[in-house]
UniProtKB/TrEMBL annotation:
InterPro entries: CdaR_GGDEF, CheY-like_superfamily, Homeodomain-like_sf, HTH_AraC, HTH_AraC-typ_CS, Sig_transdc_resp-reg_receiver. One of its GO terms (molecular function) is sequence-specific DNA binding. Residues 3-120 form the Response regulatory domain. Keywords: DNA-binding, Phosphoprotein, Transcription, Transcription regulation. This is Stage 0 sporulation protein A homolog. One of its GO terms (biological process) is phosphorelay signal transduction system. Residues 446-544 form the HTH araC/xylS-type domain. May play the central regulatory role in sporulation. It may be an element of the effector pathway responsible for the activation of sporulation genes in response to nutritional stress. Spo0A may act in concert with spo0H (a sigma factor) to control the expression of some genes that are critical to the sporulation process. CDD domains: REC_YesN-like. It comes from Anaerocolumna sedimenticola. The keyword Transcription applies.
Amino acid sequence: MYRLMVVEDEDMIRKGIVNSIPWQSLGFIVAAESANGKDALEQLKKNPVDVLLTDIKMPIMGGTELSKKARELYPDIEIIILSGFADFEYARQAIGFRAFDYLLKPTNKKKLLDAFTALKESMDEKREIKEEIFYSNLYISAGYETMRNEFLQSMLEGDTSLFNGFDEKAASLELDFSGHYFTAATIKLDRNSIFKELESSWATDKRLLTFSYRNILKEELSNVDNAYYIVKDYDTIDFVFCFTSIEKQKTQMIPCLESISENIQNCLFKRVKVPYTIGIGLSYPSIHHISKSYNQAKRSIQNSFYLGDKKVQVYQDNNESKYEQNFIRFYPEEMEHVAVSISTGNYIETKKYLTSIFRVLMEQNLLPEIVKNYCIALKLMVQSKITNSYEGMEKIIGDEYNDFVKEALNVKELETYIVSVMVALAKEIDQSVDPLEIKEQHKVMDKAKSYIAAHLSEKITLKMISEYVYLSETYFSFLFKKITGVTYIDYIQKLRMQEAKKLLVNTNYKVYKVAELIGYSDYKYFSVQFKKYVALTPKEYRNQGRMEAEL
C-alpha cells in the first residue's frame, strides 16, 4: 500500500475525498489529512507519505508552495493537484514541480479514480526498477559476479580440478553449459590507443570504462544461446560460447563478436580510433576442452601480426598432434553417460548417447586415431562398471572388439558396430536385473523426489541428493534419468517453474522475491530461464494469468 496525504482547506470536500473513495482497492491508504500547506509540511516531517493530493488555493500556505518544498525535501514524492482554478499559470507551475496530474474542481469520482489508477501503475513500475537495481547491485557487491568470472577464467586456463563435481559447481553459479559445440574467443583492443582515450575522455578511470564494456556485452549477448564473457582488462575480453547446433554457431558467433567490437569502438571511443582483433579457437564436443580452444584463440591473435588488417582470426593450425595425444585423457561427460546407461541396462539411452557422440565426433572432424581411441576407452569404462556382468560382456563383445575398432575403414562402419554391441550389452544387463531390485530403485527415486520438493527454495546439489539416498553421484544421476525419463537438473527446474507460475499469479511478490523463494539467487537468470520454459517473461505471465482469472 502507498501512503497518501490529503491537503484541502474545506472540511466537507476533504472528508468526502477521504471517505468516499475506495482507497485500499486502488492500492493506497490515507495516512494523514491537513487543512493547509504549513501543517502538511509539519506532518510530513513526522509521518512521511508517498503521495500528496493537494488543493492549490489554501490559507497560510497554498498548494504550490507546499508542492515545491515537499519536492525539495522528498524528491520521490508524487503529487496530484486538485484545484478550482483553470488558469494556465497554475498548470505551468504544476509542471514545474513535476506534478503527476492536475485535476479541476469540481471533479467527478471517475476522473479521480482514473488518475490514481494510473499513478499506482507508474509507482509500481518505478518501485520495481529501483528494487531490481538494488538487488542487482547487491549480488554484484556480494561477489557473485566475481565468483563466476573466476570460475570461467580458471576453466579457460585449464584448471582440471574444476571438473570434479563440475555440474553442481556450474549450477551453483547458474552457468548453463548445455550444448555440443564449445568454443572460446577473445577480443584484443589496442592498449596504447585506449590509453590515449583514457587520458582525454575517461580521466584514466579504467573501472568506469570496463563497466561500460559490460553494459554493451550484456545487451549484445542476450540473444545468443549460452555465452559468457570475462572483462579481463580494459584491452582484453574473453568469451565462452556453448551452442546446441553447428548452424547456430556459424550464424551467431562471429557477427556477435564483430558487433560487440564495433559498438565498443563507436560508443566509447570518440577521439581515438582503437584497432581490435578477434581470435577464435576451434570448436570441441565437450566443455572439458575449452582451455584448448582458448589457447588457440590467443594464438590466432598473435598470428594477426602476419595477416594484416583482417580483424577476425579463426584458428587454422592443424598441427595439433602433441595435444591430441593427450586428448583421450579427458573424455566428454557423454562417455561417462554411455558407460553408466549400459551398466544400468538402459539400452534406449545407450543408443541415443552413442548416436549423439558419433554425430559430434564426425562434425568435429577429429583424427581417426582419436575417434578409435574413444571406442577403446569406452570398453574399458564399461568393464569398470559392470564387474558383476563381466561374463555377459565377454559373450557379446568378445576379443574381436579391439581388432574391429583398429581396422575400421570409416567412421560410419565404426558407429554401426559400436552401437550394435553396446546396445546388445545393455539389453543383456536389463534382462538380468532382479524385479525386486527395480522396485527398490523406484523407492529410492521417490525418496529423492521428496527431498527435492522439501528443499526447493535452497541450492540443491547432486552431492546433497546422492548422499541423502546413499548412492554415488554418477549412479544416482543416471538411475534418476532411467526411472523418471529426465535428468535430475531438468526435474528440479520443472518443479521450480511450476511453483514460480503459482507464485506469480496468486501472490504480489516481486520477481526477485519469487526467484528467491524457488532457489534462484540471480533473479535475472531466473527470468531468462522462465522465459525459455514458458515463452513469456515472469511479468507477462503474471498479467496473462490474472486476466484469464477475471474472465
